[in-house]
Specification:
19% strand, Bug_dom1, 2 domains, MFS transporter, alpha/beta, globular, 10-stranded mixed sheet, D-Maltodextrin-Binding Protein, domain 2
Length: 329
């Protein structure tokens, strides 16, 4: 009798294993064909450059072609939505800007649920922003800028890459933290916003280093601080906003590889290890440094955690800045 039950039990176990086998086989063979890395912005920007560097070296590391596919539109949401709705098989991945996707989610502008649609694979790169003022603005430090803003409430203007962009939201966070009132002037992208700063149409911007880099030593602008918690290896002499007295301030444009939720963990782990190896290569580190960025990788769990932390941070900023009206300003 006992024997009979044992046979049934082992037959049942075998059946379970057989059912699980195809999924195992898939992640075991992964990657068996080319992988698409969706960059949700046009060619030429920071995320596109990051995507191309990783795609090149991941192709060597994984033995399958990793292709960058630019799917631009809606500030990154068209590409992200495409990946969110793709098969969770490890062949369609997103190179996402954690901050801007989180801001759109906080503003209620994502066509998918950011917190549930994706699982983290690895960080890819960080691009700090810097605080830059037109050289005619009488402020040589962050302390002086805050004092000036308090002296002239609502009169100092800041340019941004557009309503609801990380560039605008970084300033909204700064305003909330320093109790200052600055006037928002949105532009259609970083290029026009930086041009307005150079021409003196706006007093200041919070903008990525790559967007400002060519103008840092021209005498037309003054760079006061970096927005990240640590100093930037590209500009090690520049204090952080925290060092300049804005407690707890930390904004970095973080780019990460995200996969659709329910992608097999074995695939995620394999990809994360490949990312880690690529990110540590001196060649790759050097290529990012040339762009004023830093190659940074992380474990899948750390990446998911960072995504959740960004979502929480920007939801609080949107509430503090007056809810959804913010993106119209």
């Amino acid at each position: 009798m006992h024997h009979h039950w044992r046979t049934l039990a082992s037959a049942f176990t075998l059946a379970l294993c057989a059912a699980a086998a195809p999924a195992q086989a898939q992640s075991g063979d992964w990657p068996a064909r080319p992988i698409k890395l969706v960059v949700p912005f046009p060619p030429g920007g920071a995320s596109d450059a990051a995507g191309r560097i990783y795609a090149q070296y991941l192709t060597e590391k994984l033995g399958q072609t990793v292709v960058v596919e630019n799917r631009a539109g809606a500030g990154g949401e068209i590409g992200a939505d495409h990946v969110a709705k793709s098969d969770p098989d490890g062949y369609t991945l997103l190179l996402g800007a954690l901050g801007s996707h989180s801001i759109h989610a906080a503003l209620g502008e994502s066509p998918y649920d950011l917190g549930k649609a994706f699982v983290g694979v690895s960080m890819a790169a960080t691009v700090p922003m810097v605080v830059a003022v037109n050289s005619k603005v009488p402020a040589n430090s962050i302390a002086e800028l805050i004092a000036l803003a308090k002296q002239k409430p609502g009169q100092l203007t800041f340019g941004s890459a557009g309503p609801g962009t990380p560039q605008q939201m970084a300033v909204e966070l700064f305003k909330a933290d320093t109790h200052t009132n600055l006037m928002h002037v949105p532009y259609k992208g970083s290029g026009p916003s930086v041009a307005a700063l150079l021409g003196g149409q706006v007093d200041l911007v919070f903008e990525t280093l790559p967007a400002l880099q060519g103008n840092v030593n021209t005498g037309r602008i003054r760079v006061l601080a970096v927005t990240s918690a640590q100093r930037s290896p590209s500009m090690p002499d520049l204090p952080t906003l925290q060092e300049a007295g804005v407690r707890g301030y930390d904004v970095t444009n973080a780019y990460a590889v995200l996969a659709p939720a329910r992608t097999p963990r074995a695939v995620i782990d394999k990809l994360a290890l490949a990312m880690k190896d690529v990110g540590a290569m001196p060649d790759v580190q050097q290529k990012f440094r040339q762009q004023g960025a830093q190659a940074v990788t992380s474990t899948p769990d750390e990446t998911t955690h960072m995504l959740q932390a960004e979502l929480k941070k920007w939801t609080a900023v949107v509430h503090a800045a007056g809810g959804k009206e913010i993106a119209k300003k």
